[in-house]
Amino acid sequence: MKCIFCGNSESKVVDSRYLKDTSIRRRRECLSCGKRFTTYETVETNPMVVTNVDNVREPFKIEKLTESIKYATYCVDLARPVEEIASSIETKLFALQKQEISTQDIVRIALDVLMEMSSMACLVYYTQHTNCSNFEDVRRFLNR
Ligand SMILES: [Zn+2]
């Protein structure tokens, strides 16, 4: 957030006040010129909707994604924290610019991201989230 007086991008929050449950007002002080200005933060009220294989629609939840990544990587040494991985998957999902995404979209992107880090995590995630029911499927996936 750039200072409206001098354009400096660093400021500190001197006061925060909730306006409603989804909105917050922050009083900021510029670290360069010391002047104060006010910003408003509002929760995105138009979240992505996830449609699963049974056509059930539910709002996208990063917590759920984080849990599934945590599960798939519990036996793997990762270079990045799970939350960061989930967040980069979320960013890629937002980049699709679709209001409605499918669970397949999530799985596909999660696999792409996990593949860069660990094929083991990728495999565990794959078996958890697809209809893969036998070793042939897994082998086909690994040879892809
Ligand atoms: Zn300033």
Explain the overall architecture.
The chain is α+β, with helices and mostly antiparallel strands. It has 2 domains: 11-42; 49-142. Helices cover 40% and strands 24% of the residues. The chain is built from 5 helices and 6 strands. The strands form 2 sheets. It has a 3-stranded antiparallel β-sheet, with no helix packed on it. It has a 3-stranded mixed β-sheet with strand order 5-4-6. Strand 1 (11-20) and strand 2 (23-30) form a beta hairpin. Helix 2 (82-95) packs across helix 3 (103-115) and helix 3 packs antiparallel against helix 4. The longest helix is centred in the middle third of the chain and has 14 residues, at 82-95. The chain is elongated. It starts with 10 loop residues before the first strand and ends with a helix. The model has no long low-confidence stretch (mean pLDDT 86). The structure holds zinc ion. Zinc ion (ZN) binds at residues 3, 5-6, 8, 30, 32-33, 35.
Largest sheet: 3 strands, antiparallel
User: Globular, elongated, flat, extended or rod-shaped: what is the shape?
Assistant: elongated
Bound heterogens, unique: zinc ion
Share in β-strands: 15-25%
The number of distinct structural domains comes to: 2
- Overall pLDDT level: 86
Write the H/E string, N to C.
EEEEEHHEHHH
Q: What proportion of the residues is helical, as a percent range?
A: 25-40%
Query: How many β-strands, per DSSP?
Result: 6
Strand order of the largest sheet: 1-2-3
Compute the number of helices.
Answer: 5
Radius of gyration over all CA atoms, rounded:
20 Å
Question: Based on helices, strands and strand pairing, what is the structural class?
Answer: alpha+beta
Question: How far is it from the N-terminal to the C-terminal residue, by CA?
Answer: 44 Å
Low confidence ranges: none
